[in-house]
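Exercise: predict the fold of this chain.
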Amino acid sequence: MKESGVFKFGILSKSRVETFSDGIFAIIVTLLILELKVPHIEHAESGGELLSALGTFVPKIISWVISFLTICIVWVNHHRIFEMLKGINIVLFWLNVLVLLFVCFVPFPTAMVGDYPLNPIAVASYGLVMGCAGAALIAVRWYGFTHRELLRETVQAGAYKKEMVMAFVFGPVFYISAAALAFLNTYISFSLYFLIAVYFMFSFIVHKTE
């Protein structure tokens, strides 16, 4: 059915769910910066002491950059998925809530990695959370694929399925693999987390120019 130009399935409107989701994403990327606090030094006039303190601050900055880019990537993927939907039902709503749940949790492992960059548990937990967020997005995609009444008529099943498979491989699979590698070398995991973000940014550019 349709109300005021907005398709509705069950009791939920797509536009309100999108607005709610966008608000959550905006809050989370803002909260990430709160973990970057000015380091405390004993002698306020000492440039060397401040530089030394900032040197220990580098892991926090790196983890913040990776998380900021990754959440923006999740938001773009979320936006692209909802662009292909003409409506939403209660099941899809709760799958979307699952995505937001993991996104809201991202600041915690981000802070933990910043504080303990050489601890494999901390670094692995980051990949695990990101992998879960990616898996939740795949669940949203899959539900749309298996309930074609929710998808726009212009959506091509083949292209949709291919994009879903690629998102699964370069999302949950890579993140979980990178998390496991933290027990071998945390720097490898850091590098893979960053490369995953670069891959998705590049894929968005290619998709936009096609």
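Check your answer against the key: Residues 120-146 form the longest helix (27 residues).
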